[in-house]
């Protein structure tokens, strides 16, 4: 398989070079490579190609030939691929598709389904104040929705998938399998690309199974299902989060460590939410701040099981990040971030115990921490030498806007999905109840408010990405975007697929068990 992959790789590289002078072919090829999830094999070639296109664009305006300049699909694709890469392209490029009244020209656009769909995808990368893209999003969403019944089955399926979760907001590798079946049907498809994508998918699938196996062994041997029976038993499901963060082979260690910590966090969340009383949890939280298990000697055994899991995990992180046998600054950062989470869980428990409904704003301040993303991200970052610099960890510890945005997307989208179920038991008020109370809204109005908030935080992510890309590694910034993407997937349509894991089963089978027939 490895040999075959190498052979295909060579062919695709040659293909990429051969379309050097044709911007349309080049952009479409890059788009296919990304959608098929094989673009990571051609990072430098794609980087170079996009840099070249951007430089030409920045120097001379839109240099594609006059005719192509009015090709809505091409302009939208160019805009999306460049913005996704962190290049700022003005949304004014879409002005030419408006009529004299300043509206999107229905007569031209509605006939061009591909162009309309591409514009819809491009509009997902909008930042604050880009009214033209806001309008484009609404216009294309409504038009596409209204015409899907007139399209071929394959095109309608693709567009419906995209209307449910746009390409930019989907975890790339989780879309790859379905894209392969659509791609196969396209008359212009390339067999080399398709076979390469299938082989690569199957090869990586074996790799992921090994990773999941390692953590499953640890989870079983630790006997958490028996020792902490109140907690969700989700060692396979937790893998979906780090897998979404970055699924490339070179980040295997980071995935392993992040999966393990997420499993520990799941135990911890249930210990706070379901198991402990407020008094016990106060003591437990204090013990975590002191990093001293002897402080909870009087508490039931389950607390010690969870505490020990945490201590063992941190010892492992210590040996991974130590320098010359000494604990490094990395571990101090990690512990601090973890202690913040424990304190935030306690705040929630106290609110719940007192029957207090905080304001939506206060809830969100605490919610950044209870999303658990600061811990998951810091563990991933700490496991990658190139990322774990003091500068990056200091920046991260101050909760930069991109971290706040991705954490809050997860927090509030999770609450939309799970608040009804959670409110049936003793659970802290969710974003929905807090929002209803602060603004005097009905439940439906609160849903609408929160959905707008989710869009607001996506724009923050897009804006921050464009700013930060100058100083930070792209793969680091992609972790933040990918966590927002997996949150969108995990809690889509008011379902909590993590807790209600039957809903996740088919996806897990597709990602980990069923190979693609080559
Ligand atoms: C908070 C969140 C969605 C985190 C996602 C990342 C993640 C898998 C963290 C570890 C496990 C966890 C806390 C899941 C959410 O449970 P829950 O739905 O019971 O969370 P809650 O008790 O905070 O509502």
TrEMBL record:
Coiled coil: none
Domain Terpene synthase metal-binding residue range list: 221-459
InterPro entries: Isoprenoid_synthase_dom_sf, Terpene_cyclase-like_1_C, Terpene_cyclase_plant_C1, Terpene_synth_N, Terpene_synth_N_sf, Terpene_synthase-like, Terpene_synthase_metal-bd, Terpenoid_cyclase/PrenylTrfase
Organism superkingdom: Eukaryota
Signal peptide: none
Cofactor(s), by name: Mg(2+)
Alphabetized UniProt keyword annotations: Magnesium, Metal-binding
Pfam family, one: Terpene_synth
Domain Terpene synthase N-terminal: 1-163
CDD domains: Terpene_cyclase_plant_C1
Record-given protein name: Uncharacterized protein
